[in-house]
Amino acid sequence: MHPRVDKRVIGYRRVDPQGQPRRLYEPYKSTVLRSPRRPLIHLPHTLSEVTGPMYGHNPIGESDNDLTRQHAGEPLGERIIVTGRVLDEDRRPLRNTLVEIWQANAAGRYFHVKDNHPAPLDPNFTGAGRAFTDDEGRYRFVTIKPGAYPWRNHHNAWRPAHIHFSLFGPALVTRLVTQMYFPGDPLFPFDPIFNSIRDERARERLISRFDMDTTQPEWALGFQFDIVLRGRDGTPFEENR
Amino acid sequence: MTPSQTVGPFFGFSLTANPLGQMAGPGATGEPVRLMVRVFDEEGAPIPDAIVELWQADASGKYEHPEDTQAQAPDPAFCGFGRMGTEETGTCVFHTIRPGRVPGVTEKKQAPHINVIVLARGMLDGLFTRIYFADDPANGEDDALALVPEDRRSTLLARQDPAQPGTWNFEIHLSGNRETVFFDL
Fold it and tell me: Are A239 and A213 in contact (CB under 8 A)?
């Protein structure tokens, strides 16, 4: 049979801006000089947008998903398990997709030359992890709970404790960089990064859920954080289209 | 959907700890391109803490991805993904090749282009743009470029440095009077 290349691709659903941060959000001062003022140009999805770097590029090391075992000793702080599923908008699991995380240590200090917060570095904690999702779309990290830290955005500005997440998903347009927060953080009402998202329910999707079933006795508290990437406009391999 | 949040300033020990600038391995097919990307803010100041990610087809126009069903095999000496953090000058450098033409939404194939994602502190969501090659005759029939107002198309063109053949310059202006065209995908 002669293979037929179908030029039409099945695109991805468009993003609802209500559920996303405003790009220009004056309370977060750095957005002022770093946000486009002209409207973005709508492009139909082509092969360029429905493909993407989905396989990762470096093999995963043994301690890549356990941030407490990357050095000779154990890091200080509250040991936690962070796990969840990566799904598309139709709740289909996204398998074998790369999840990268990074975070501050328990004192609220990043392993980064430009972080000059006067809190101690921890020689046993770098704060970077990588994992691939399994057949159910699940990832799992062991780490320590990051501390809140000050930033100079406004007077007495503090970031709620958070873990940065980066995901590719199956396509260029499913790329997501976000932050996971912890339930009940008293800093939420004051944080312009969190509050840049208009819709309250969308903001709440960034807050992990404490989970007793994930919590391991005599060992670590467990938090669940599911991540939903953009869904398809249709089913890519349907026969009857 | 999970909302986006900024990548922040402190990703260097994670996302770009192993920079991916060498996309063309030894023996990669195609015209070598040393691509210098510079990122600027609204006032024209270089942004020293941005991430630039590239995604492109190989020289034959094939993406290394299961949804690219074109017959040819992807070039094993080429990696279509690149990721670099910018330096103090706002610059990052990729060693790649000029991609081939890939299928578009009409019978015409798209002009050679590199898909770009920009992330930085102060950006609550990433931005998508495309890099085209200024001298490419196919630009005139590219469906995506045709959707861009004519007076802004030049913001999507990489230009070859006359003093250094093979070196191409591309500037990303997040805002300001030279604002780059960004795409709503």
Answer: no
Domain hosting residue A62, numbered range: 17-229
In chain B, what residues touch A3 (CB-CB under 8 Å)? 69, 71
Which chain B residues have a beta carbon less than 8 Å from that of A50?
67
CA dihedral (B45, B50, B56, B58) in degrees, to 10, reads 90
Task: Return the CATH number at A85.
Answer: 2.60.130.10
With beta carbons under 8 A apart, name residues in chain B contacting A33: 41-43, 45, 122, 174-175
Residue A229: which of A164, A180, A171, A163 has the closest Cα?
A171
Which residue of A37, A51, A65, A90 to mutate against B (max B Cβ within 10 Å)?
Answer: A51
Distance CA B61, CA B30 (A): 11
How many structural domains does chain A have? Answer: 1
ipTM above 0.90, yes or no: yes
Supply the pTM of this predicted model.
Answer: 0.96
Inter-chain residue contact A37 with B175, CB threshold 8 Å? yes
A64 located within any domain: yes
Name, in order, each residue with C-beta under 8 angstroms of A200's C-beta and a sequence gap of 6 or more: none
Query: Token digits for B22?
Result: 């060498």
* Domains of chain B and any CATH numbers: 32-172 (2.60.130.10)
Backbone angles phi, psi at A63, to 5 degrees: -100, 10
**CA dist., res. A53 & res. A43, Å (int):** 20
A40 in contact with B at a CB cutoff of 8 Å? yes
pLDDT (tens digit, 0 to 9) for every residue of chain A, 241 residues total?
444 445 579 999 999 999 999 999 999 999 999 999 999 999 999 999 999 997 655 678 889 999 999 999 999 999 999 999 999 999 999 999 999 999 999 999 999 999 999 999 999 999 999 999 999 999 999 999 999 999 999 999 999 999 999 999 999 999 999 999 999 999 999 999 999 999 999 999 999 999 999 999 999 999 999 999 999 997 655 443 3
Q: What's B77's DSSP letter? A: T
From A57's Cα to the closest Cα of chain B, the distance in A is 9
Task: Assess if residue A240 is contained within a domain.
Answer: no
Establish if A6 belongs to a structural domain: no
